[in-house]
Design a protein that fits this description.
The structure holds 2 protein chains of 2 kinds. By secondary structure, chain A is α+β, with helices and mostly antiparallel strands. Chain A has 9 helices and 5 strands, in the order αααββααβααββαα. In chain A, the strands form 2 sheets. Chain A has a 3-stranded antiparallel beta sheet. Chain A has a two-stranded antiparallel ribbon with strand order 1-2. In chain A, strand 1 and strand 2 form a beta hairpin. In chain A, helix 1 packs across helix 3, helix 2 packs across helix 3 and helix 5 packs across helix 7. In chain B, strand 3 and strand 4 form a beta hairpin. In chain B, helix 6 runs antiparallel to helix 9 and helix 7 packs across helix 9. The chains are: A alpha+beta, B mainly alpha. Chains A and B meet through strand 2, helix 4, helix 5 and helix 6 of A and helix 1 and helix 4 of B.
């Protein structure tokens, strides 16, 4: 294994959060970002070829070792309690926030047809959604957006990796 | 007309409406409002009869549906209605349904992703250690006076009390015993009822110890915990110190 790849592997291994390529570039000054990106790709490939239980994934703007999806049944046994998954209401609310952010609560309510206060509170507590600011209109409503943790939890590189929302066909267009 | 009612939990009025549209295999762009309104209202009745907390939003949509239905019944306003058919009163609702449906699908897609701590795991993710059998046994439960009394009875019974008739028994007062117990607790941080008694099993000592603990619990100076029925009763000082 090339020395630099080994260093990158060690850095990612020891890092708590997903490690950004830029950060690796700071640590390895004699390699530029492009080189690091290709080294990361080489490392990811090595793990893939090895066929082990771990793979290198790009999540939330950084790189992280994660277990392979098909290892989940055993890992769930290791971790005693299954983490509380999101309710359908919370999931819908999260989807609206993710695709329409930044947005205010009334917009979420409108789309879902129900009051989203409860679901929103839960998402804030789980740190999947955060307060981005306040809208400069009367009442200064709170603006919400998703967090970095959202990307981490949902295995997303960045927001652009969100599955595409089904095109909302224009009703007029549909009726000729 | 009766409906076979399957109680689903709906995420809201739009969800219920989508469900009805799916169930009847209706084209969302051409909703038979009369039929859907009727079914929608009978669902509301059913939910109400089950005492389900009916959110106000359900009623708002009900009134929207009825409003649309009445609009459809009315002949198009104005004489020149022929060329300009006017907007379909259902259009806005359909738009809303489509939008909601898109997000509902998106929610499912999101949920289908490999989720951290569900499908994929990262190194050193906070481990919620399964309680080992030993730990489970030792999990402490706060005890009340009744458990304490039970323990007391058991100890009394266990002594088989053969009281030596020593007249000059150890002079002991309740406040002495309280102080002793507090000293032990400050020193050791915790102790058990049985430990406090030691091998000294004369009735008087047992009773004073018991009374002292009750007094300390009453004063909230100690807390008593038990690991399970008939487990050892452990005492901890109530305040750090």
């Amino acid at each position: 294994m090339e020395e630099k790849v080994a260093i990158i592997e060690a850095l990612i291994f020891a890092s708590e959060a997903p490690l950004a390529a830029e950060r690796i570039a700071e640590i390895l000054p004699d390699a530029d970002k492009n080189e690091i990106v290709s080294l990361l790709a080489a490392l990811a490939r090595q793990y893939e070829e090895r066929g082990g239980g771990i793979c290198l994934r790009e999540v939330a703007g950084g790189f992280q070792f994660r277990t392979r999806t098909d290892m989940a049944p055993w890992l769930r046994k290791l971790k005693a309690s299954r983490p509380a998954m999101l309710s359908p209401a919370a999931m819908e609310t999260l989807a609206v926030v993710a695709y329409r952010q930044p947005l205010v609560k009334s917009e979420i309510d409108r789309i879902r047809g129900v009051d989203a206060s409860g679901a929103l509170k839960g998402l804030l507590e789980k740190k999947l959604v955060r307060i981005v600011g306040r809208k400069d209109v009367p009442g200064k409503p709170i603006i919400y957006g998703t967090t970095r943790k959202f990307l981490e939890v949902f295995n997303l590189k960045d927001l652009s990796e969100l599955p595409t929302l089904r095109e909302l066909k224009d009703l007029q267009g549909q009726q000729e | 007309m009766s409906y076979e009612i399957k109680l689903d939990i709906f995420e809201g009025p739009l969800d219920l409406l989508l469900y009805l549209i799916r169930k009847n295999e209706i084209d969302i762009y051409n909703i038979p409002i009369a039929l859907i309104t009727e079914q929608y209202l009978s669902y509301l009745d059913m939910m109400r009869s089950l005492n389900l907390d009916l959110a106000g939003e359900y009623l708002v949509l009900a009134s929207t549906l009825i409003h649309i239905k009445s609009k459809l019944l009315l002949p198009p306003a104005g004489g020149d209605g022929e060329e300009e058919e006017g907007e379909d009163p259902r259009a806005e609702l359909v738009q809303q349904l489509l939008e909601y449906q898109a997000f509902k699908e998106a929610a499912l897609l999101l949920d289908g992703r490999p989720l951290l701590e569900r499908d994929v795991f990262k190194r050193g993710a906070p481990e919620e250690e399964p309680l080992t059998a030993e730990e489970t046994d030792d999990a402490l439960v706060e005890v009340d006076v009744f458990e304490l009394v039970t323990a007391f009875r058991r100890i009394i019974a266990g002594t088989g009390i053969k009281e030596d008739l020593e007249i000059d028994a150890e002079k002991m007062s309740l406040s002495d015993r309280i102080n002793e117990i507090m000293e032990i607790l400050t020193e050791k941080g915790q102790t058990t009822f049985t430990d406090l008694l030691g091998d000294r099993t004369d009735r008087r000592r047992i009773i004073y110890t018991f009374l002292a603990i009750l007094e300390l619990m009453k004063l909230r100076m100690v807390r008593a915990y038990q690991s399970g029925p008939f487990g050892a009763i452990r005492l901890f000082p109530a305040v750090e110190g």
